[in-house]
Amino acid sequence: MASTSTPICAFGEPAPDFDLPGTDGRRHSRDSCRGPNGLLVMFICNHCPYVKAVLDRIIRDAAELATLGVGCVAIMSNDPALYPEDGWDEMVRIARDRQFPFPYLLDADQSVARAYGAVCTPDFFGYNAALELQYRGRLDASRKDAAPDDARRDLFEAMKQVAQSGRGPAEQIPSIGCSIKWREA
């Protein structure tokens, strides 16, 4: 498992569109997931210890961001042939058991991850109401273990600022996680 960190935020970059199947049995697009004040696109998976360490916090933050008018969506782009735990049935089970307050989508051909430039799980892309990138940073100080309960909520605070002002913070700390498991060419 290779540890990878995200690049610096490319402020203003537009959110690529997508049309992917969700664990809820419906198809979802960028526009169906966005809220009136923004969109948070999260690349996650089922097996990654970095995601497992913060999944409760992701669920909490997504639910709170919804009250601020920020829509959230999680996308799984790993090759399940390499990591069976990331397969469809496990995605459905985890989304149901954990009661995800956001759609959990399968990017089977990995085209959406490539369009966004996702590099790791978790990888967060925070957009304003105009779908311009404003945040590409970490959730909080967690790594393979959750940070203390009183850790600063970097992602939540940044997206709250985006929802209120349309602009993300100038200073952002990269997210770190397991590399995306790309299909062999």
UniProtKB/TrEMBL annotation:
Q: Which Pfam families match?
A: AhpC-TSA
User: Can you provide one Gene Ontology molecular function annotated for this UniProt record?
Assistant: antioxidant activity
The protein's matches in CDD domains, at most eight in alphabetical order, are given as:
PRX_like1
Instruction: Tell me the domain of life.
Output: Bacteria
Q: Which PROSITE patterns match?
A: THIOREDOXIN_2
List residues of the Thioredoxin domain. 9-144
What are the TM regions of this chain, as residue ranges?
none
| The name this protein goes by in its record | Peroxiredoxin
Record the organism.
Answer: Niveibacterium umoris
